[in-house]
Specification:
The structure holds two protein chains of two kinds.
Chain A lengths: L4 H7 L4 H8 L3 H8 L7 H10 L4 H5 L6
Chain B lengths: L12 H31 L4 H23 L9 H30 L5 H35 L2
Classes of the chains: A mainly alpha, B mainly alpha.
Chain lengths: 66, 151
């Protein structure tokens, strides 16, 4: 699943490790989510969104660009 | 989700999901192998002890094998420096195990009096240590490779 987690995290100047520690997962899990190789649960999506001060739409909603 | 198996699972969501897959796959393979053994038992006389040991080995080897090659054990190892440091930790841990095992054996069991007994205990100890070191090394190597790709 494509998402904007990586770009948002970089803009917020947070490392994968810092984000992982704050939401209670491993750095590997954050890396997998950012690469779109793992679809997180809704609970984890909300935790990431709260930590990055974004809405779920801004982070995870796909917008068709025609 | 609450289940009695939760105490065996890691806290991390991705690792937990992976482990559940490994346990489920292991259980299905175990079920299939038991069916095969029941069919085989009609044609050959299978020893109960062998069947039980084979069933146990199939499940344990499958689940631990999948865990080792999946690269999910060392989730924070993503730099060359951290990799080398962890490798050193694995090496020291293996040596420590050899020393402690040998010391406890000599203190609580007995000091082997014959040469063949020495070979027996040292052979067992070296085999366990090599398997332990290699499984940790492979797991570390796979984790490092996976983590590097995710940076």
């Amino acid at each position: 699943m494509k998402n904007n987690v990586k770009i948002t995290r970089i803009k917020a100047s947070i490392t994968q490790e810092q984000l992982a520690r704050k939401i209670g997962v491993t750095r590997q899990t954050i890396g997998l989510i950012e690469k779109g190789e793992y679809n997180p649960s809704l609970q984890l999506c909300v935790a990431i969104a709260k930590e990055l001060n974004k809405t779920l739409d801004e982070l995870f909603w796909e917008v068709d660009t025609k | 989700m609450k289940s009695w198996i939760s105490f065996l699972l890691p806290n991390d969501e991705y690792k937990e999901k992976k482990m559940l897959y490994f346990f489920s796959e292991g259980a299905i393979i175990l079920l299939l192998s038991l069916i095969v053994m029941i069919i085989c038992n009609k044609y050959f006389n299978l020893d109960v002890e062998t069947v039980l040991l084979a069933a146990l080995a199939i499940f344990l080897f499958y689940v631990s094998g999948r865990y080792i090659v999946s690269g999910i054990e060392y989730t924070d190892i993503s730099t060359e420096r951290a990799y080398r440091k962890e490798l050193r930790v694995i090496f020291i841990r293996t040596i420590r195990f050899v020393v402690i095992f040998m010391a406890l054996y000599l203190i609580f069991i007995n000091v082997p009096t014959r040469l063949d007994k020495w070979f027996e205990i040292l052979g067992l100890l070296i085999s366990i240590s090599v398997v332990w070191f290699l499984s940790s090394y492979i797991s570390l190597k796979r984790s490092y490779k996976k983590n590097k790709e995710l940076l």
